[in-house]
Amino acid sequence: MLTLFYAPGACSMAAHVVLEESGEKYQTHRLNLSKGEQKTAEYMKIHPLGRVPALKLDDGSPLAENTAILPYLGKRFDMWPTDLIKEAKALSVVGFFASSVHPAHGHIGRPERYTADTAAFPGIQAMGKKTFHDYLKQIDAMYAGREWLSDTYSVLDPYALVFYNWGVKRELPVAALKHYTAFKDRMLERPAVQRVLADEGVKL
Ligand SMILES: N[C@@H](CCC(=O)N[C@@H](CS)C(=O)NCC(=O)O)C(=O)O
């Protein structure tokens, strides 16, 4: 059985939604990031960077990184395009989310990763917030005229929901993003999404 290591409201929420959508039995292990539970020696054996998500596979081996976990779950649970070009486009979105959108948010919440000079924190955070907002606008445009980011509902959509939630938490004007907000409302109609948001204490 699969085991997901996750933290409420973190980027692990994407894999959590996908697992909940799958209908397959799975286990969860919740970590409290503010208490540093992700940095214990035991957990670092599962995720060497001490981050979530991590997935323990059926054979007991660990898998880290959204870029691997989400395509793996998507292929296993039919939430991933099979057409070669559509798969490449889905990977392009995963790459954009993991390597641009997520790190932009990291500049707001974790400026200490980018400089030891605390006087520089406000500048890093302000630029992170602007860049993150610009990326949310880009995601808004990606949802224009379409229900889901790929042809059908896929792992890309729960991943996109993570960043919408972070935009709300950072008090960015996300309601003005019409397509992205309509997508968020479509997601809220899904029972699996409702269950995960309730479990993680996320209100959207
Ligand atoms: N590149 C990783 C990023 C994972 C990541 O940064 N996770 C955050 C939560 S969204 C985390 O665990 N932060 C805790 C920490 O850095 O101590 C992925 O996409 O899987």
CATH architecture of the largest domain: Up-down Bundle
Q: Can you give the helix content as a percent range?
A: 40-55%
Q: Based on the structure, what is the oligomeric state of the protein chains?
A: single chain
Number of distinct beta strands? 4
Number of helices: 8
CATH class of the largest domain: Mainly Alpha
Order of helices and strands: EHEHEEHHHHHH
Within the largest sheet, what's the order of strands?
2-1-3-4
- The number of domains: 2
What characterizes the major β-sheet? 4 strands, mixed
Provide the structure class: alpha+beta
Bound molecules: glutathione
Low-confidence segments, given as residue ranges, are: none
In words, what does this structure look like?
- The chain has two domains: 2-76, Glutaredoxin; 84-190, Up-down Bundle (Glutathione S-transferase Yfyf (Class Pi), Chain A, domain 2), CATH 1.20.1050.
- It has eight helices and four strands, in the order βαβαββαααααα.
- The chain has helices at 13-22, 41-44, 66-76, 84-109, 121-142, 156-169, 178-188, 191-200, and strands at 2-6, 26-30, 54-56, 62-64.
- Helix 4 (84-109) packs antiparallel against helix 5.
- The protein is globular and about 50 Å long.
- The relative contact order is 0.14.
- The model has no long low-confidence stretch (mean pLDDT 98).
- Bound molecules: glutathione.
- Glutathione binds at residues 10-11, 33, 38, 50-53, 65-66, 98, 102.
